[in-house]
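Example record for the data management plan.
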Amino acid sequence: MPRPNVPVTLSIAITNKAPHELSRTTLTVIDLLLNGDLLRLRSEEVADTLHISPTTLRRRLRADGTHYQSILDHIRRHRCTLQLEKRWLPGKCVAWELGYAEVNSFYRAFRRWTGHNYSDLKRLYL
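Corresponding structural encoding:
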């Protein structure tokens, strides 16, 4: 089975390591989240996809110096950036695309990532 093709910049942003320094498990988790449905991909489902237990998944990610929630947060930020490079979307739409069950959780994450309110972004687009 070939190693997943994870962009170097994304790998370094998430783990501070280049892809060749990471385990196949970590690269596969990044790849699954990068290309998958974030609303449905919880750590248990990812572990099941990899045919390992959630405990083994946590242990392997920890060995690479990361954890599932950190990878998920970086992927959400990356996908948000890609979405907003194309066009402005209502926060509810972006939150849904990024797998947030509550739009307010997305707004808090956006503020943590950028230091700005999502509503401030609308003025730049319109």
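Summary line stored alongside the record: The chain has a mean pLDDT of 89.
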